[in-house]
């Protein structure tokens, strides 16, 4: 029987998970319902006119569907009309029922529920929580989730099974019958479409893909059989999805600053915290108070003494042994009875010492010595514990492996910095020092003691895979010495989150240079060829000029930096491999960025040097067209730049695809040769693509040809003063004297 390979991409409704609010103080505005059926509706959410904080966001307004029993709250906006399960003020979460994407096959028909439109959540207060998992159910099913974080993002997983007997109920979704993967924070845009379909296993007619609350789904073999069995039995109302909400149109006032007029934390006993996922803030009641901080006088004092009388568990939470409990605003006092005194905690009493005990305490010069010695022992023990903890972090973050590599390769350029030095360089990781945030970590701008400016990369996630990736990046970069590759200066491994220290590259990324519409200026063709050539030479170097072949694995314009003279610097080797994979090796989860991924590697699960060649071809297209790898055309549809370029090249419509700034009859031969090179690099078969060394050589020839065409018989001095580059043509090209153009064109053809 032929196996079926199903590609699904899931569109995510704005939804999320949360705990129900506690009973007690009012949670809604006066005169407004505080419940819909069994679900509490706390303000700023509300049902009815003037019952929700629509001035902060119209999505706070809900509707109650009374046609169902019990009634169910729904988001009232038609674009996100989904059922709300519960809302939490404390955690800033909403839990809803989300849809399931599915497709079923029978002998004659196909039933599907797939989408091919995008959905932007940037105007709402809802952002999907990282406590969700993207889950796929089925045999031979490959599910993909893609979107913006706000950077382009793609991830997925593959589910397989030999037959229905090889699966087991209750198993984790690790690939047998179902699979799952995480999503990043700040995910604001999603898209879904059915990319491919074919025949299926006879016992598995339906495939499903969904974003669902972590831990909700447990695999069952019966979900693989029957027509829409999973939808009918377990997901007839949808699946629970968790979203983070916040007051998105503002931020917490800085210390001493006056709160704005629309400040949402209106209760006198409340405070503001920045949202954990996305922009904005949340309000919490101060310690010792409970209720709704978004309502005037919504946070009310907790009577700890009364709670002690009602439930024994509160006696442990609010201790007052051998004393009398008295409630105070935001706290309580434990007044000691006669014959007792405070135990030093202000929440407990103990008997007054007997005369004999006083004598024992008064005796002791020796007791004081013993106490002092005990303190010294404790202090030394704490120091040893602290040092041991740092040593453990160093080992688990790969420090020993790094030392071995440094000794074996005699690497002297990598410095190991302490946590204290890193904190000093970044002003204790100040938000003002943040340069950017990627899928794997935060990047800070720092200044070392010698006043050298650096970029410090700090991982977000603390797991073994992430630590291995950081050590991998250190080892790879320690072998590289090239003027067009960002230089690694040092690392810090004695903390739970490992950090890398790079040279600081001041002019941002090539992606920003090409696509920043706020500062978009003309970019001459010779500068574009310079950046392309330098980037290609850097990749050719890591492929063939180091002791072991290094594959970058994530070539894109975001990973090419520009210095003050607009020289290219290839960066971010976190996804790199030290050598080409054996033919039996494969990648479990596809890494890379949507629009740049080599389709051959995506199918074969093998990374090769030709995978970098394919991704670099997309970067060349960005330089030629000034369009993003995934762009929106004039009909407002999302298109893959590589796919569109191939179609227009074969239709002889190259001029229409190129950036109008560089289209000129005098240099058209350069652009045509560059387009031919791109087409060879985009060849579906990796073996038929040129090597990066070939690509770099041909780009160098094209730079010479362009110089020949624009200078004719005169030397050239090129300067850029439009707020962009300020550089001149490389010294080996200044004064280049004219020869026949046809000779250079012939040289390009021979290089192919």
UniProtKB/TrEMBL annotation:
Residues 1-20 form the signal peptide. Residues 721-740 are annotated as: Disordered. It holds the Pfam family GUB_WAK_bind. GO terms for biological process: cell surface receptor signaling pathway. It comes from the Eukaryota. GO terms for molecular function: ATP binding; calcium ion binding; polysaccharide binding; protein serine/threonine kinase activity. InterPro entries: EGF (IPR000742), EGF-like_Ca-bd_dom (IPR001881), EGF_Ca-bd_CS (IPR018097), Kinase-like_dom_sf (IPR011009), Prot_kinase_dom (IPR000719), Protein_kinase_ATP_BS (IPR017441), Ser-Thr/Tyr_kinase_cat_dom (IPR001245), Ser/Thr_kinase_AS (IPR008271). One of its GO terms (cellular component) is plasma membrane. SMART domains: EGF (SM00181), EGF_CA (SM00179), S_TKc (SM00220). ATP binds at residue 458. This is Protein kinase domain-containing protein. It comes from Panicum virgatum.
């Amino acid at each position: 029987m032929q196996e079926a390979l199903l590609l699904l991409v899931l569109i995510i409704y704005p939804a999320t998970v949360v705990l129900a609010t506690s009973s007690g103080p009012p949670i809604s505005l006066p005169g407004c319902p505080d419940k819909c059926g069994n679900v509490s509706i706390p303000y700023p959410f509300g049902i009815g006119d003037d019952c929700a904080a629509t001035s902060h966001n119209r999505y706070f307004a809900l509707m109650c569907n009374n046609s169902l029993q019990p009634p169910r709250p729904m988001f009232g906006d038609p674009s996100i009309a989904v059922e709300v399960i519960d809302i939490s003020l404390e955690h800033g979460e909403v839990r809803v029922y989300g849809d399931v994407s599915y497709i079923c096959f029978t002998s004659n028909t196909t039933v599907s529920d797939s989408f091919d439109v995008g959905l932007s959540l940037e105007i709402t207060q809802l952002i999907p929580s990282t406590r969700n998992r993207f889950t796929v159910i089925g045999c031979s099913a490959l599910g993909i989730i893609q979107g913006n974080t706000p950077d382009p993002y793609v991830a997925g997983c593959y589910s397989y099974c030999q037959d229905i007997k090889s699966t087991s109920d209750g198993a984790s979704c690790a690939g047998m019958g179902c699979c799952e993967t995480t999503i990043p924070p700040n995910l604001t845009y999603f898209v879904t479409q059915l990319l491919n379909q074919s025949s299926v296993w006879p016992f598995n007619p339906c495939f499903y893909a969904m974003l669902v609350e972590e831990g909700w789904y447990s695999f069952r073999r019966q979900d693989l059989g029957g027509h829409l069995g999973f939808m009918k039995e377990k997901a007839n109302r949808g699946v629970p999805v968790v979203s983070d909400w916040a007051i998105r149109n503002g931020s917490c006032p800085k210390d001493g600053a006056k709160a704005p007029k629309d400040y949402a934390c209106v209760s006198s006993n409340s405070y503001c915290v920045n949202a954990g996922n996305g922009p904005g803030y949340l309000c919490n009641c101060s310690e010792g108070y409970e209720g709704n901080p978004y309502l005037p006088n919504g946070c009310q004092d907790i009577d700890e003494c009364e709670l002690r009388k009602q439930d024994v568990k509160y006696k442990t939470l609010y201790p007052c042994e051998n004393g009398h409990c008295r409630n105070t605003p935001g706290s309580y006092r434990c007044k000691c009875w006669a014959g007792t005194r405070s135990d030093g905690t202000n929440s407990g009493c103990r008997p007054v010492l007997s005369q004999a005990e006083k004598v024992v305490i008064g005796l002791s010069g020796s007791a004081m010595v013993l106490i002092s010695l005990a303190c010294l022992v404790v202090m030394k023990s704490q120091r040893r514990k602290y040092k041991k903890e740092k040593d453990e972090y160093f080992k688990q973050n790969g420090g020993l492996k790094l030392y071995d590599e440094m000794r074996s390769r005699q690497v002297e350029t990598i410095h190991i910095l302490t946590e204290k030095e890193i904190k000093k360089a970044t002003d204790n990781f100040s938000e003002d020092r943040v340069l950017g945030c990627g899928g794997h970590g935060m990047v800070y701008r720092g200044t070392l003691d010698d006043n050298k400016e650096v970029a410090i990369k700090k991982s977000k996630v603390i797991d073994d895979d992430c630590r291995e990736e950081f050590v991998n990046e250190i080892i790879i970069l320690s072998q590289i010495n090239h003027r067009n590759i960002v230089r690694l200066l040092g690392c810090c491994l004695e903390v739970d989150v490992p950090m890398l220290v790079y040279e600081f590259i001041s002019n941002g990324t090539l992606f920003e240079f090409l696509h920043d519409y706020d500062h978009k200026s003309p970019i001459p063709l010779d500068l574009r060829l310079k950046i392309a050539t330098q980037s290609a030479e850097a990749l050719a170097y890591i492929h063939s000029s180091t002791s072991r072949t290094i594959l970058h694995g994530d070539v894109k314009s975001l990973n090419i930096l520009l210095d003050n003279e607009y020289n290219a610097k290839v960066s971010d080797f976190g996804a790199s491999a030290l050598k080409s994979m054996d033919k039996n090796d494969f990648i479990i989860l596809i890494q890379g960025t949507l629009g740049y991924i080599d389709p051959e590697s995506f199918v074969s699960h093998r990374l090769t040097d030709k995978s970098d060649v394919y991704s670099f071809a997309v970067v060349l297209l960005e330089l030629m067209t000034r369009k993003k790898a995934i762009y929106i055309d004039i009909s407002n549809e999302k298109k893959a730049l590589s796919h569109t370029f191939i179609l227009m090249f074969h239709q002889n419509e190259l001029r229409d695809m190129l950036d109008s700034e560089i289209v000129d009859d005098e240099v058209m031969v350069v652009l045509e040769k560059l387009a031919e090179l791109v087409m060879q690099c985009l060849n579906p078969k990796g073996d038929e693509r040129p090597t990066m060394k070939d690509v770099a050589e041909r780009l160098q020839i094209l730079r010479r040809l362009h110089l020949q065409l624009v200078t004719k018989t005169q030397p050239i001095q090129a300067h850029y003063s439009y707020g962009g580059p300020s550089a001149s043509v490389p010294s080996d090209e200044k004064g280049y004297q004219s020869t026949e153009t046809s000779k250079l064109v012939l040289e390009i053809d021979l290089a192919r």
